[in-house]
Amino acid sequence: MTVPTLSHPADTLPRAFIVGCQKSGTSWMQALLNAHPEVCARGEACFGTSLLPRLAGLTEAYNKAQRAGTTNAFDADDSAQIMRLAICTLQRKWFEAAKSKSPVRIIAEKTPEEALTLDTLGRVFPAMRVIHIIRDGRDGVVSGWHHNLREDAAAFKSRFPTLASYTRYFVEHHWLPYITAARRWGIEHPEQYLELQYEDVLDHPTEHARTIFGFLGVDASDEPVGQAVERASFRSMSGGRAQGETDNASHMRKGTSGGWREDLDQASIEIFEQIGGSMLDTLGYPRAAAMST
């Protein structure tokens, strides 16, 4: 049996995390990054939301149970080292699987919920980079509604019988807290944080891909950028459909923005804007009333 140490070639590579409210383009961002020959990107590993809390709980429980005194207890630095070793152990497997893309220069992971755990991840990887992608939450509601109906319509409708009830849940428990938490972390770590709006990236994918790859420190020249944009295009990821060609049975449903205007009922729009209106204003998304005048 090999004793694990932080000595694998992958262990010293920079780390990046893709975050954002569900249905905001994080899957597309992961695909774009993984299409670059110098990036190994996967998801959803749930490091910040599942693995790290459990490891923290184990070290805390051991500290309480052991009887050898305070010098035998794990401190915060010890716990961070254990967490780092655990993540590196798993990501070595990613690195080995991506060797055909060599030389990999950065490892990226996508779990939307990690927008809420960036402080913890930052203790494990202090130099990590974060890509936060934001989408108009009203489009996110529509996308999430159809996604959940595909997954298990009966269970979903038993919990959220109306679109309006799901809208309230989405904006209160996902859209607002995720954006607020990630932006707060970004203010505290401006050099390590890149914020993008889905609609802008959709309109100008090549320009933004160049910005993204430059931020990650990998080749941002025309050839790798163009190849990555093509491989992560809606047509490629949807199996050949054009943007705007809707398939409600597909994870890649439509590939456009602004569909909430037709797909959300008035009650849902009013609920979303009542709760999330201030954030819409901050992000520059016009409210429905302003669009009708």
Describe this structure as you would to a colleague.
This protein has 293 residues and is α/β, with parallel strands linked by helices. It has a single domain (9-291), classed as Rossmann fold (3-Layer(aba) Sandwich). It has 13 helices and five strands. It has helices at 26-34, 47-65, 76-97, 118-124, 137-159, 163-188, 198-203, 205-216, 222-231, 234-237, 260-263, 266-283, 288-291, and strands at 15-19, 39-43, 106-110, 129-134, 193-197. The longest helix is centred in the middle third of the chain and has 26 residues, at 163-188.
| Major β-sheet annotation | 5 strands, parallel
Overall average pLDDT: 91
Strand content: 5-15%
Name of the level-1 CATH class: Alpha Beta
What spatial form do the alpha-carbon principal axes imply?
A: globular
Strand order of the largest sheet: 2-3-1-4-5
Secondary structure tally: strands: 5
Whole-number tally of structural domains: 1
**Counting H and I runs of at least 4 residues, what is the number of helices?**
13
Report the helical percentage. Answer: 55-70%
CATH superfamily: P-loop containing nucleotide triphosphate hydrolases
Quick summary:
With 293 residues, the chain is α/β, with parallel strands linked by helices. It contains 13 helices and 5 strands. It has one domain: 3-Layer(aba) Sandwich (Rossmann fold), CATH 3.40.50.
